[in-house]
Amino acid sequence: MLPAQTGPDLRRARQRYLAHGEAPPADLVGAMLSRSWQRCLAAGLAPVGRLPSPLQLDASQVARASDRQSELVAHARPVMEYLYGQTRDSGSMVILADDRGVLLQTLGDMDFLSRAERVALMQGASWHENQRGTNAIGTAIAECAPIAIHGAEHFLERNGFLTCAAAPVMAPTGRLLGVLDISGEQRCRHPHTFGLVRAAAQMIENRLFEARHGDAIRLRFHPLPEGISTVAEGVLALTEDGCCSGANRAGLALLGLVPADLGLTPVTQVFQIRVADLVAWGRQHPGEAMPVLRHNGQRVFLRVELAHGARRIVAAEPARSTPPQDAFTRLDSGDAALQTAISKARRVLGKPIALLLQGESGVGKELFAKACHESGPRQARPFVAVNCATLPENLIEAELFGYLPGAFSGARKEGCPGRIRAAHGGTLFLDEIGDMPLAQQARLLRVLQEHEVVPVGGSTPVPVDFVLICATHRNLKQDMEAGRFRADLYYRINGLTLMLPPLRERSDFAALTARVLHELSPEQPRYLDDRVAAAFARYHWPGNLRQLVNALRTACALMGDDEHTLSWDHLPDDLLDELHSQPTPLPSPHPPENLHALSNAAILRTITCCEGNMSEAARRLGISRNTLYRRMKGMPN
Ligand SMILES: Nc1ncnc2c1ncn2[C@@H]1O[C@H](COP(=O)(O)OP(=O)(O)OP(=O)(O)O)[C@@H](O)[C@H]1O
């Protein structure tokens, strides 16, 4: 008896095997065979002697069984003929069985067919495991996995002259439809037969997928761009509202989904991208793949196919479910806090409500203010931004409120209308309002109350009409309580306060980075090396988006035209130092107590920083790899 093998390694090996169509590892085959033999014994079969009358359907029953699986039969036939062409004269046959193991169709060499008939390898016979013992068709059904069974691995001795390779064929819903098999004489066994039958089964699955989902939005994806359009690609079909309605086997395995997830899982739960963005990519870049992150941070390349039906659906979609496509769309890559701010801002657009944007330096307050302006009814009028922190105190008054000719020494002789009047009809954005001196705060308040501005050196007020957006990284409420900011102005500018989140708290970091990279390098797909992405995600980004965008811009400039992966080599030195020196949690919950423990902790921290890359960790620690391994061996568990 073969030993039963289980355990997480074997489960992982099985997943890899099913996902990528690789040849199964020996352990896995051993485990499948072992389970099969145990099932045969439990079903009361004996390796020798008479069989307890196995099932054999007559012609009309075979016709009914074929009708039941008409879609499978129709799509399998051309693939079987192709396979037969490949294996002709090799003393073998190509078989299609249904999900119960009943042989629906056979194509093969006459010599072998007559020999096969003696063991009932013919149309109408059932090769279910509990009828014929361990065999490729029956065991592939029982295990729902491809398998090859050679000679004496068959449970029944009488089948020992056979060599058989079979692969299940699944519907796009994940349901088992049947099995494709190539059987021949053991002495004519060919090493490529198993690979051929697995690829052919996948071909049938792909044909079934196209037939069922040809009118849907389809996503083709793979961890490598070259993997798309190969038999290893994952394929997902989406309903019009972005729900995953079908997937091929590789797709399910690559995404860690099970068939029961289909029909229930929105694509936004699988990839960090919105349906509207997928569709936009499919429209604008037909046939091109883009890098997209899964929610576990793993990157895949994805091609979007919009069939004609889907194009119609999608064209109608924005009116029903997608948010408006305005200037905010570019800022929204999925973070919930930012989305809340955007939806509140959208609701007050065009209304006389002053916005106060709060958030750390570089979180994108000015960009947000611009998006408010460009999404609102005043978008054709001016957007005027004034940074109150960078204007010298003696100029701020003249700059904001304007001045008459000769108002003060050094003034332009023709005078100046000032920034507030320049914003007439549009939006005035006062950045760093918290840094405005108290005297100017009083003048600004008057402008906001009277809707008119009196230029420096003049006495005649000029009417002005603008939407006010202010921003600050300071805590204005505290400043007001401490007397540094006027309370009346605070309440005037604070019609609605919106808090923009710092980068380190954003949940859409990966999608945001991918989007910025795409904007910086629209022609050339670029993505972060996995270790850089992990270090970026851990870093605290004190300069927020300004720092991230600058780092990515520099990195893109340093990358060669044919380079796609942004690695450590492309990052500026100061950021590299920061990334490498950031503290990472120690694996041990106890603080190190002595020198030896301290050095162990340093080693572990460096290995974590290097994402387990031992050569890199050894280089950074200044020791050889051998020393590093020796030190690791000596560490307590
Ligand atoms: N969503 C975004 N996508 C791409 N670039 C962005 C985004 N948000 C901000 N940036 C970039 O980050 C930089 C800082 O943005 P912005 O000036 O709007 O931030 P801020 O919060 O107003 O900064 P500060 O408080 O220092 O004035 C700008 O170069 C801007 O182009």
UniProtKB/TrEMBL annotation:
Superkingdom of origin: Bacteria
Residue ranges of domain Sigma-54 factor interaction in the record: 331-557
Gene3D superfamilies according to UniProt: 1.10.8.60, 3.30.450.40, Homeodomain-like, P-loop containing nucleotide triphosphate hydrolases
Keyword ATP-binding tagged: yes
Keyword line: ATP-binding, DNA-binding, Nucleotide-binding, Transcription, Transcription regulation
Molecular-function annotations in GO: ATP binding; sequence-specific DNA binding
PANTHER family associated with the record: TRANSCRIPTIONAL REGULATORY PROTEIN
Protein known as: Sigma-54-dependent Fis family transcriptional regulator
